[in-house]
């Protein structure tokens, strides 16, 4: 069976989404619902997939969490980036740039036949 | 205000707060996350419960549409569990994620189809069990050719697979061979000659135990290598 776009997206998420979660915490601590709203869609297949990832990140010391009172309802669990998390994020960033460029270059060198080629002047017959 | 690490939101996590429908959903998630530790499951479910509370905050009591939308966006419990099982780990540490497989099957490699592990190891196993007859020898040779010609395993794994699949058969024939050995002694008293024979009983209890362990190890080893082959064949 030929993998479809959904499968390709699922494969691409592995190893990437966790770092996007870390990146979302760079600006300061946030609670799960807030992070999910930002990443839901392309990066998270569904909001629920965020919580196993947050649990693992916390267990591995890349994020820390604490419960805080909320003015709008029950207490919220806030997540923040740790020093190890920041280090992991920087390592990912330094790898991501060349990786993205290499993928872009590979795709542009071998464009899909489904997509129209850029307009080229016709050769005189 | 920081409140520490305990879950003060749990008091709001009752069925009355979110509704029985949401609690059933969370129970399904909890069940689907069986591979995770109890603590992990509790943390994940607590996070999702808080999410649902946030998503339905401000909705009128009994507003099923808000909850239905929140549950839909939360996703299928099984899909969440699958995502939790194969998520990568930025720290490089291994949790419940599958062990990283260093053996990469290059595209276009020979004999990497999903039938190869079953046929190759099956031929060796059956051939080994029936060794001594003509046909099983052919099966062993065919299995060995398939195993060693396939790109699904490393050289060390192929050697281990060869030994593992043949071990149960060799152990069986070793036991059967020893169980038939008889030791006879002849005593002559005048004109009478008396011959007494006794069976060795398979080489003793220790030998039988060793052979049994070898056979079991062979079966387990074959199973592990079959599984690795299947995983790689599926991914190839």
UniProtKB/TrEMBL annotation, chain A:
Transmembrane segments: none annotated. It comes from the Bacteria. Residues 103-125 are annotated as: Disordered. Residues 21-90 form the Transcription regulator PadR N-terminal domain. Residues 111-125 have a biased composition (Basic and acidic residues). Gene3D superfamilies: Winged helix-like DNA-binding domain superfamily/Winged helix DNA-binding domain. This is PadR family transcriptional regulator.
């Amino acid at each position: 069976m030929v993998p479809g776009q959904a499968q390709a997206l699922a494969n691409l998420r592995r190893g990437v989404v966790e770092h996007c979660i870390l990146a979302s915490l760079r600006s300061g601590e946030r609670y799960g619902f807030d992070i999910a709203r930002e990443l839901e869609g392309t990066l998270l297949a569904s909001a629920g997939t965020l919580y196993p990832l947050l649990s693992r990140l916390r267990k591995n010391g890349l994020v820390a969490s604490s419960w805080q009172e909320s003015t709008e309802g029950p207490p919220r669990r806030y997540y923040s980036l740790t020093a190890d998390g920041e280090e992991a994020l920087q390592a990912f960033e330094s790898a991501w740039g060349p990786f993205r460029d290499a993928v872009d270059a590979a795709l542009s060198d071998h464009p899909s036949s489904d997509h129209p080629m850029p307009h080229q002047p016709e050769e005189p017959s | 205000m920081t409140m520490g690490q305990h879950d003060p939101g749990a008091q709001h996590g009752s069925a009355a707060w979110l509704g029985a429908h949401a609690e059933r959903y969370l129970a399904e998630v909890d069940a689907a996350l069986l591979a995770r530790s109890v603590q992990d499951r509790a943390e994940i479910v607590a996070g999702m419960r808080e999410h649902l509370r946030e998503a339905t905050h401000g909705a009128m009591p009994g507003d099923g549409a808000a909850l239905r939308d929140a549950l839909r966006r939360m996703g299928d419990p099984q899909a969440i569990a699958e995502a939790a099982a194969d998520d990568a780990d930025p720290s490089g540490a291994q949790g419940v994620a599958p062990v990283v497989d260093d053996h990469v099957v290059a595209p276009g490699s020979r004999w990497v189809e999903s039938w190869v592990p079953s046929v190759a190891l099956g031929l060796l196993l059956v051939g080994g069990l029936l060794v001594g007859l003509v046909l099983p020898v052919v099966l062993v040779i065919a299995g060995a050719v398939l195993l060693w010609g396939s790109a699904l395993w490393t050289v060390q794994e192929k050697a281990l697979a060869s030994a593992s699949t043949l071990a149960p058969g060799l152990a069986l024939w070793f036991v059967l061979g020893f169980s038939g050995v008889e030791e006879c002694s002849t005593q002559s008293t005048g004109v009478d000659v008396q011959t007494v024979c006794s069976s060795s009983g398979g080489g003793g209890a220790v030998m039988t135990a060793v052979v049994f362990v070898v056979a079991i190890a062979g079966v387990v080893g074959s199973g592990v290598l079959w599984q690795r082959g299947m995983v790689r064949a599926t991914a190839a």
